[in-house]
From TrEMBL:
Residues 107-178 form the Ig-like domain. Coiled coil: none annotated. GO terms for cellular component: plasma membrane. It holds the Pfam family V-set. Keywords: Cell membrane, Disulfide bond, Glycoprotein, Immunity, Membrane, Signal. This is Ig-like domain-containing protein. SMART domains: IG (SM00409). It comes from Takifugu rubripes (Japanese pufferfish). It is found in: Cell membrane. One of its GO terms (biological process) is immune system process. It comes from the Eukaryota.
Amino acid sequence: MKQNPILKVIQKTLGEQPILICMYLISSEYCSCANDFKTNPRFQLHPGNNGTNLTITDLKLSDSATYYCVNQYLNVFDFTEGYNVIVEGSGLTIDQPASQSIQAEGSVTLNCTVHTGWTCDGDHTVYWFRNSGPSQLGLMHSHTGRNKQCERKTNTCFYSFSMKNLNTSQTGTYICAVAACGHILFGNGTKLVCGGECSNFVQIIFCIL
């Protein structure tokens, strides 16, 4: 029995698994949408002579993603070049304290407040970088932000990163970055500066008479 090719439209958002939106059986000209797109009238597939087009109406921030058209024949999948859709006007902002004072062998908690501009449904990926000089931006830590760290009423999320047993080599600017809805936004950073007892060494002077 001859197997006819199937066209599939895939959505891939940052940090998430690819999701099938719709598929089109070329031989029968049959269209069908999958997952949550079945009942979402904003996503419509329009077959044509040379393939099919996907139309998204009433764009939302969550539509920011890379979209692929996949030609499937038996177990062979041919991916076209992806189309990046970025919905502007996210309102995503990040606030960080400008500076914090540290003490030798002490501890510090860096705070990052994210104003999402949309509901906090779905997880964010939070990155913490340390900038210790020109071209010296290094990744210190990353984690997934959970819904329990967000306030739905204000669309605000709160993240933190703690360090212990500090020493003078850990001064610098620590930058919070958040990946959400196809965007990565960097904060201005918090500069860690030495307090009055920041020195973690003892200078011994020998005086020989």
